[in-house]
Specification:
By secondary structure, this protein is of the alpha/beta class. It folds into 4 domains: 162 residues, Rossmann fold (3-Layer(aba) Sandwich); 147 residues, Rossmann fold (3-Layer(aba) Sandwich); 108 residues, Beta-Lactamase (2-Layer Sandwich), CATH 3.30.450.20; 93 residues, no CATH class. Helices cover 39% and strands 22% of the residues. It has 18 helices and 26 strands. The strands form 6 sheets. The protein has a 7-stranded mixed sheet. A 6-stranded antiparallel sheet has the order 17-16-15-20-19-18, sandwiched between helices. Strands 8-7-9-10 form a 4-stranded parallel sheet, covered by helices on one side. Helix 2 packs parallel to helix 11 and helix 9 packs across helix 10. It is elongated and about 145 Å long.
């Protein structure tokens, strides 16, 4: 592995020398973006130019994330160019030498409006060579491990940025909660400039864990086998904490992924870390910072400066952090997810049917839920409608029974059209229509009805309709007519009803039979006119009392006139036997008050000392004078 690294370094140096000799605008250390990146500096600048100077090479994952975040924030608002010092593969002295050579050419062609520097080596270079390359140019740093260096740089004019303040304290507190019996922390670093800066950050949090002893393992001083041996010897009493490992004592270099795979395979306990580099490749995880988010944060700061904000007035910030863990490592060491902080990100979780088809399942579930809801509502409405229909049927049955028992005639009247609609829910109403030859709907209904009643009663009926037409809520009348050759009388009452929604007015009319009441009234009036109505004694025969015929009752005393017996006179039956006081005789079918009054049997009692017969019908007594 060592010869390969040396060959790579030599090839890079040779290629750089050739490109510089040709005066190329781009080298293995630099790349440009935007349409103006390939044009000469003589072109009129339409957008500001921003330079990103990275401590490492573009194949370093951390750098790729920083670049992506920076581009996400700046988008098309500026032209971005990138320069890489590649300190992970060459020495700091070599990196400075060739970076200076390239900047002489690059700055001679382009005047940069802002410079972004990534990680400690790039910040140190920018401060050291500022007068030569970045005089009066705002500088924004990110990913700086050394808080001391960041604070010193921000004290200079036109410099601000974001510190890579690793959340070691949060990560160690989590580790202690998972391994409460741990007594020491073994950190892994590599002796590089970044490694030393990160180790200083860890030193600052050691005092927060007095129960733990801290030890650092410098990978640059150990061989691969020695590193693996030390890690495999660690037990549950040790918390392994990865800081950085880019090389070992044999000259081998490692990317974050390679370091994670090698160390994880050798370790017998989880390896915690405080940034996202190498996550998903063997590290257990912890509270980690995001380099993508860091790049976006710095990009927003650059935009503010390009829009006129003063860098000296922008305070330096820390990078955002989140909890992130590897599912495979959780399973490997038997650590339950319930022991992790809420809202933790879990990498490498096996894909489930839901996770793979979530975009399709969510709208499908929503559609199915809506359909199920509609089905439930439909079933519920159907059952509710069935209950209402049963209640309506019962009420209609009750209504028909009540209407038929008293011979009700029911119809609806529309004042706006003068149309009458007969209600066939009443059997008697249907029968009346059949007898009269009426259809269920009568156009010009009031006149059609008036034509079949007595002429003297027509004004009363039409007057009722006129009151309703004029807006009256209720109106009523009485009228007579011939029914099956016999005079009959009814009382009609009209009542206005309104639709709850439309407020449309409809009139419901109900007529009831008052024939018996009318005949009683006629008889009462005749009795007032003729105080003594004769009962023909000759019509009393076979123990049955018969009244005079209806003509005699209505016109006056019976045509057959006999002298009225005195108070002491006895009463005799037609067969000559005397009627004794208080004697009760049975009568049948007297028919005295017309239809409905003469049916059945009645008792007639001769009142002592009077010319009175008392008629008893159930609990009713009727008194009649005798001649």
């Amino acid at each position: 592995m060592k010869p390969y690294r040396r060959l790579r370094r030599n090839m890079a140096l040779v290629l750089l020398t050739v490109l510089l000799a040709l005066g190329a605008g781009t080298s293995v250390f630099a790349a440009g973006t935007g349409p103006e990146a390939s044009e000469a500096g003589s072109a009129v600048k339409s957008r500001p130019d921003v330079l990103f100077l990275s401590s490492y090479s573009p194949d370093w994952p951390e750098v790729a994330m920083q670049m992506q975040g920076l581009q996400n924030a700046l988008e098309d608002s500026s032209n971005q160019q990138f320069l890489f010092m590649d300190t992970k593969h060459i020495s700091s002295a070599e990196a400075e030498q060739y970076t200076c050579a390239h900047l002489k050419t690059l700055c001679g062609e382009t005047h940069f409006d802002a410079v972004v520097v990534g990680d400690d080596a790039a910040l140190n270079f920018a401060v050291k060579y500022r007068a030569a390359f970045f005089a009066d140019v705002p500088i924004v740093f990110m990913g700086i491990n050394s808080a001391k260096a960041a604070n010193a740089a921000s004290a200079l004019p036109l410099i601000t940025g974001t510190i890579e303040d690793l959340p070691f304290e949060q990560t160690l507190r989590l580790a202690v909660s998972i391994f409460p019996h741990a007594s020491r922390v073994l950190s892994i670093s590599d002796g590089t400039e970044s490694g030393k800066a990160v180790r200083l950050q860890l030193n600052d949090v050691e005092r927060a864990f007095p129960q733990l002893s801290f030890e650092d393992m410098d990978s640059s001083q150990l061989t691969r086998s020695e590193i693996a041996s030390r890690l495999s010897a660690c037990g549950d009493d040790t918390i392994l904490l990865y800081l950085v490992m880019t090389r070992d004592g044999e000259g081998n270099t490692y990317s974050a992924r390679q370091a994670a795979e090698f160390l994880s395979e050798a370790a017998a306990v989880p390896i915690f870390r405080a940034d996202e580099m190498g996550m998903g490749n063997g590290f257990f995880g912890g509270c980690v910072i995001s380099y993508l988010q860091m790049g976006e944060q710095v990009g927003e700061t650059v935009k503010k400066i390009l829009n006129g904000a003063a860098p000296d007035e922008i305070e330096i910030k820390g990078a955002g952090a989140r909890y992130e863990f590897d599912y495979n490592q959780l399973r490997r060491f038997g650590i339950a997810e319930s022991s992790l902080p809420k809202d933790s990100t879990i990498l490498n979780r096996p894909a489930t049917f839901w996770s793979e088809n979530r975009q399709t399942l969510i709208p499908s579930i929503m559609i199915i839920s809506v359909l199920l809801l509609m089905l439930i509502m439909s079933v519920w409405n159907g059952r509710k409608r069935a209950v209402l229909q049963r209640k309506l049927a019962d009420s209609q049955k009750l209504y028909r029974t009540a209407a038929n028992s008293v011979d009700l005639v029911v119809w609806g009247y529309d004042p706006s059209t003068r149309q009458i609609t007969m209600s066939f829910d009443s059997d008697f109403t249907r029968h009346v229509c059949e007898v009269r030859g009426f259809s269920q709907v009568l156009e010009n209904g009031p006149d059609r009805q008036a034509a079949v009643i007595f002429e003297n009663d027509r004004p009363a009926l039409l007057g009722m309709y006129r009151q309703i037409d004029a807006g009256a809520e209720t109106a009523e009348c009485q009228y007579g007519f011939l029914w099956e050759g016999v005079p009959a009388y009814r009382r009609a009452k009209a009542t206005s009803v309104y639709d709850e929604k439309t407020r449309r007015r409809t009139v419901v009319c109900i007529s009831t039979d008052i024939t018996a009441e009318h005949r009683m009234q006629e008889l009462y009036e005749k009795e007032l006119q003729y105080p003594a109505l004769a009962l023909n004694r000759s019509r009393l025969g076979s123990g049955t009392v018969q009244p005079p015929d209806s003509i005699n009752l209505l016109k006056g005393p019976a045509a057959e006139s006999n002298p009225r017996p005195g108070p002491s006179a006895g009463r005799r039956r037609p067969n000559g036997s005397a009627l004794r006081p208080h004697q009760t005789i049975r009568t049948e079918k007297m028919g005295l008050f017309g239809p409905g009054w003469g049916s059945g049997k009645r008792n007639v009692t001769v009142m002592a000392g009077t010319n009175i017969l008392r008629q008893s019908d159930s609990d009713k007594d009727q008194r009649f004078d005798l001649i």
